[in-house]
Amino acid sequence: MQAMTTNGVRISVESKFQPGHSFPHRSQYLHVYTVHITNYNEFPVKLISRHWDITEADGTKKVVDGPGVVGEQPLLDAGGLHSYSSFCVLAFPMGRMSGYYTMVRTDTGDQFNVDIPSFILMMPDALN
Fold first, then answer.
1. pTM score, two decimals?
2. How far is the C-alpha of 107 from the C-alpha of 97, rounded, in Å?
3. In terms of C-beta density within 10 A (0-12 exposed, 13-18 middle, 19 or more buried), how is residue 58 classed?
């Protein structure tokens, strides 16, 4: 599990390859990742958007931007936790994801970014 704290918000991520939903003969490797977001600030925050940088094993890069996460814009009270799972389909057995969430302090309206630590998406035995 990869973890990082930025601006009082901790992001931890774990990923798992899904062999039953992957089709190597079609260059489709599905990975599920779970993100845990903990607000260590003394004020509530709301996640309003996401930015992902996805890098394939061959160096190809893709950027994904959008509102919220999995159709939600979660509100985290002081000390609050929000977890969600999503997925990424790669064209190669391994790749990397990183990015950031844009948050807003609900008490002041100030926006800030929270870094998502870089994590590996890898099919087991991909390096053998």
1. 0.93
2. 31
3. exposed
- Per-residue pLDDT of 38-88, as tens digits, reads 999 999 999 999 999 999 999 999 999 999 999 999 999 999 999 999 999
Q: In the beta sheet, which residues pair with residue 24?
A: none
Cα–Cα distance between 70 and 77 in angstroms, integer?
A: 19
- Place 127 in a pLDDT band, splitting at 50, 70 and 90: low
* C-alpha span between 77 and 94 (Å, rounded): 36
Q: Which two tokens stand for residue 11?
A: 């992001």
Identify the residue whose tokens are 């890069």. Answer: 61
Dist CA 7 CA 5 (whole Å)? 7
Cα distance between residue 74 and residue 82, in whole Å: 7
Structure tokens at 33: 């990742």
